[in-house]
Amino acid sequence: VTVFLSTLTPKFYFALTVTSSFISGLIFVFEWWHFRKYGTSFIEQVSVSHLRPLIGGAESSAAAPVTFSASSAESETNRQNLPECKVWRNPLNLFRGAEYSRYMWVTGKEPLTYYDMNLSAQDHQNFFTCDTDALRPSDTVMQKAWRERNPQARIKAAYQALELNNDCATAYVLLAEEEATTIVDAEKYFKQALKAGETVYRKSQNCHSQSPQHEAQLRRDTNVLVYVKRRLAMCARKLGRIREAVKMMRDLMKEFPLLSMLNIHENLLEALLELQAYADVQAVLAKYDDISLPKSAAICYTAALLKARAVSERFSPETASKRGLSTAEINAVEAIHRAVEFNPHVPKYLLEMKSLVLPPEHILKRGDSEAVAYAFFHLQHWKRIEGALNLLHCTWEGTFRMIPYPLEKGHLFYPYPSCTETADRELLPTFHEVSVYPQKELPFFIHFTAGLCSFSAMLALLTHQFPELMVVFAKAVSTV
Fold it and tell me: For burial by CB atoms within 10 Å, which of 279, 376, 388, 416 has the most?
């Protein structure tokens, strides 16, 4: 190189820099075009050609029949007539006083947005109030309490309701959620709420057929009882009494089977995973991972985790590229692809490529808020299974090669909603960087070729302006 550069003349060096700038520019343009059309870097695709048997096996296997097709998903959404970006109550939401408030005391950051808390206020009014509340002074006070924006005002109203009626279950619920600063204190309040709620529920059952008002009161009392039992089960789970929590959840699901919309089965799945009762987890999935039921990240990724568990311990990308994928490995890869297509934000949290925040009280299915809520509770379950995160790391990006880009249609599910970013920004705190999809991150080689093109163009410009100086500079660099 030194001998070659020592023979350069200013004109020849200028021609060389212009040529290299032109070539690097062409490479950059081609890389950009290939990325825009196919959603992947051409250089990167070629550089991993030794993994092509692995990728090809996964892609060819995706052509096999699946249990949840795009057409069936579209018919399901038409049947349910749900809006595209419906916000759901987070089945695993934390306790306001014992968890969210403690985080704010330590960090000084608000973990919940006003929009999220406003949705919770609406939920409380729908769950815990009815038209007959005006007949009971304590319920009238609580009806106003759920509308209060100030937490201290709500707590004060709850105590006023208890002064009027010591068996006001909803007052104990509010104190458990917002005044209790530990899970132990919250559990004490919920036990008092359970005792009061069961008494009122039995009375409502005896007279619910007398009038529409009594039926509305029974629905309200049912909601209170289910909410209290569910939160008691979650307290037991958080305090380490996991088997007790599982029993409470199972009993609750048997007693109120029509309240599946509350997604209690997701609480049950998480508790069973903590017990490592994988056979029981599979039994729950067999019931709820059904074409007629709405999907969730908990359902899809738990199904993927169970299939990955069967092969992850012995899985190696190098070995798989040589011998190809086994049937069990193909099933695991397909399950991961299915989960990633449903919610593409989850893998970065599970692989700790992005930091977590406290999950919001409401989530948007297939959105970043759901990914945060899922990973917050399930990351430990993926870490517990040896090799599961490695398998996820090796295969999750393959999903994006199978989905049309730009997204005209889905592959296994209906097309990804375009409104998730706006809703997630309302649900997640301002200090959290919201993930956006289908916007794809530019691959490294596009940045590299852009930098190479810019550097070559700068060299050509400097050579044109200072030809002799640049030749001397090139010779000096080559000598060094």
Answer: 388
Q: Which is nearest to 446 in space by CA: 20, 175, 45, 121? A: 45
Is the separation of the CB atoms in 374 and 329 below 8 Å? no
Chain CA centroid to CA 199, Å:
39
- Domain-embedded: residue 276: no
- Sequence-distant (6+) residues with CB within 8 A of 175 are 155, 158, 159, 189
- Indicate the pTM of the whole model: 0.74
Identify whether residues 129 and 188 lie together within a single domain. Answer: yes
The answer to whether residues 433 and 464 belong to one domain is no
Mean pLDDT of the chain: 80
Radius of gyration of the chain (CA): 29
Residue 121 shares a structural domain with residue 224: yes
Residue 63: Cβ-neighbour burial (10 angstroms; 0-12, 13-18, 19+): exposed
Q: Could you give the number of structural domains in the chain? A: 3
Q: Which of 262, 280, 303 is the last residue of a domain?
A: 262
Rounded CA separation 13/90 (Å): 64
User: In 3-state terms, what secondary structure has residue 87?
Assistant: strand
One domain, residues 236 and 314? no
* pLDDT tens, position by position, 14-23: 666 667 767 7
Helices marked H in 147-241 — which ranges? 151-164, 169-174, 183-207, 212-238
- 178, pLDDT greater than 90: yes
pLDDT one-digit tens code per residue, 63-94:
333 333 333 334 344 433 444 578 899 999 99
Is there a contact between 14 and 464 (Cβ–Cβ < 8 Å)? yes
In a domain, 105, yes or no: yes
Closest CA to 252 of 215, 270, 275, 225: 225
**98 and 210 inside one domain:** yes
Measure the CA–CA gap between 432 and 164, rounded to whole angstroms.
Answer: 43
Burial category of 7 from C-beta neighbours within 10 Å (exposed 0-12, middle 13-18, buried 19 and up):
exposed
In a domain, 353, yes or no: yes
The residue segments making up the domain with residue 469 are 445-479
How many residues does this entry show for the chain? 480
Tally of CB atoms within 10 A around 322:
11
**Do 235 and 228 touch, CB atoms closer than 8 A?**
no
327 and 309 within one domain? yes
Look at residue 186 and tell me if it is in a domain: yes
Are 190 and 334 contained in the same domain? no
